[in-house]
Amino acid sequence: MSRKILIVEDERDVVKLLRYNLEKEGFRVNHVSDGALVLPEVRRDMPDLVILDLMLPGMDGLEVCRQLRRNDKYAGLPVLMLTARGEEADRVVGLEIGADDYVTKPFSTRELVARVRALLRRKDLPDRPPSSLHRGQLMIDPTAHRVTMEGQTVELSALEFRLLHFLASHPGMVFSRDQLLDRVWGNDRSVTPRSVDVYVRRIRGKIEKESDQPAYVETVHGVGYRFGTAGE
Ligand code: CA
Questions:
Q1: Model's pTM, two decimal places?
Q2: 111: helix, coil or strand?
Q3: Do residues 108 and 172 share a domain?
Q4: How far is the CA of 35 from the centre of ligand 1 (A)?
Q5: DSSP label at 65?
Q6: Which of 47, 53, 119, 137 is least crowded, fewest Cβ atoms below 10 Å from its Cβ?
Q7: How much distance in Å is there from the Cα of 8 to the middle of ligand 1?
Q8: Are 26 and 20 a contacting pair, CB within 8 Å?
Q9: How far is the CA of 52 from the centre of ligand 1 (A)?
Q10: Are residues 92 and 159 in the same domain?
Q11: 134-165: per-residue pLDDT in tens?
């Protein structure tokens, strides 16, 4: 059965573009343009995912997200935020109050569809305690906060661990330095995008056989970093 996406956006051109591309990909699409209408609509016809613009009449997107997350019934409903340039602060707040991901306008529809699919895939995974990740010779155990490489314990700082675990949890996905700051460092604004490079270098020094030819944490030039899938 095709998945249902609820678009919450008041800009008609954006809605048209989203609807066209999502329907082309086989999704069913509903739409509301007023933030205050989201909850009634979700109650009426539960979607599989919500694409939520932040600037809305009626009720702004952040408040909509907060209200969805306050309700246990909608706690697992994936929310993809649409943000504009200059809304970085809102983006961070949005992720904190429970949005799952964001796309910045103007966006590429291909990227947006890929994000939608990734969130739906994540939603399909059964809930279970975080299990250890095995990637090649690397093992990451989030419960014990332990990393081993070829069976040998690797000593990582808390932040190094979080960064490595985050990347390894999304193999093959590229993240910009800013995205990594949002996801891994969260509210700590004392760090700069360059700090990410420093941490990546330290992690590589600890887990890579050859730091200049990393097999795990790869550099994507001009974009950011990605956890490699070559070894799988
Ligand atoms: Ca809008």
A1: 0.57
A2: helix
A3: no
A4: 10
A5: H
A6: 137
A7: 8
A8: no
A9: 9
A10: no
A11: 888 899 998 888 999 999 999 999 889 999 99
